[in-house]
Amino acid sequence: MPYKPPFEPTDQIVETALEIAEMVGRLTPDSELSASPTLHRKLRIRTIHSSLAIEQNTLTMDQVTGILNGDRVLGPPDEIREVQNAKRAYDLLRELNPFDRGDLLRAHGVMMDGLRKDAGMFRTKNAGVYDGDRLIHAGTPAGYVPEVTAELFEWMRTTNMHPLVASCVFHYEFEFIHPFSDGNGRVGRLWHTLLLSRWREMLAWLPVESMIRERQGGYYAALNESNSAGSSTAFVAFMLAAIRDAMRPFCTRKSEKDLFEDRVLNFMAANPFCTVAEVAEAVGSAMRTTERTIAALKKDKRVRRVGSPRAGRWEIL
């Protein structure tokens, strides 16, 4: 009989899922979350920093930004490697098949490259989920991991459950199985984002990991509650609330000034060697207006000029 994860929908879960679906539906294809490379880069940095901070990585947001910019950053070598690996893993989102266990192993191999000898392999010893030194949950016995993981992926591939809810159920079941010796948390969050992005592509950039980090105590409490109840219901409710709250900043109307600045930054990001005159022409603005806007963006440290005025390039910060 096919595996069916234990889960009971509640009125709160249905209401939150509908709210998220409505928020996503209001976003147009040219909305900032959908189409802004500047925002995408900013959100990806936040995502990587938050997901690794949950795993006790001590690097700051500025250090993570520097590493991803290719700058020389001082810090623990393994923590720097974690950032580099996470960037490579998130860059694979468009290529990965969310229903393919082989791709799951590939993602884990990238995420844990140089950090674990068994990167890209299911664990062969028993393990558990910890909050600091406290054992929260003992994972599935190692000998059963390949089998139960295959059953979970088959359920995800064939379920008729709404993708928003199904992705949360999968996330819980993945952490319950705890299929790897290390890296389960960061890979589980990556895979949740992958599943969301297959429902709506723009959600590949949604910083759900940042919301989880802000509510880390609630994250572990929801895991505990679901473990005790033998059902993912509490965890699904927590994750849907996190997704909803991560969506909210992108569903508010921006001022004309903010929208104009976004157009300027987006053009610069796509054309780093452009001149101010080319920016003005591209955004349909007077030269003096464009110059004032760029000066304000430089003052706010949102963009800087690298090199000479004639031969240099723009760098979005």
Give the topology:
Blueprint: H1 11-26, H2 32-35, H3 37-54, H4 61-68, H5 77-90, H6 101-111, E1 128-131, E2 134-138, H7 145-158, H8 163-177, H9 184-199, H10 208-214, H11 216-229, H12 233-247, H13 256-270, H14 276-283, H15 287-299, E3 303-306, E4 313-316
Antiparallel strand pairs: 1-2, 3-4
Helix pairs in contact: 1-12, 3-4, 3-5, 3-10, 5-6, 6-9, 7-8, 8-9, 8-12, 10-11, 10-12, 11-12, 13-14, 14-15
Notes on the structure:
With 317 residues, this protein is mainly α. The chain has helices spanning 11-26, 32-35, 37-54, 61-68, 77-90, 101-111, 145-158, 163-177, 184-199, 208-214, 216-229, 233-247, 256-270, 276-283, 287-299; strands at residues 128-131, 134-138, 303-306, 313-316. Strand 3 and strand 4 (313-316) form a beta hairpin. The longest helix has 18 residues, at 37-54. The model has no long low-confidence stretch (mean pLDDT 91).
Quick summary of this structure?
It contains 15 helices and 4 strands.
DSSP strand content: 5-15%
Query: What spatial form do the alpha-carbon principal axes imply?
Result: globular
How many angstroms separate the termini?
A: 53 Å
Helical amount: 55-70%
Count of alpha/pi helices: 15
Count of beta strands: 4
- Our Rg estimate from Cα atoms comes to 21 Å
Q: What's the order of the H and E elements? A: HHHHHHEEHHHHHHHHHEE
Poorly predicted spans: none
Mean pLDDT: 91
Largest sheet: 2 strands, antiparallel
Main-sheet strand order equals: 1-2
Global structural class? mainly alpha
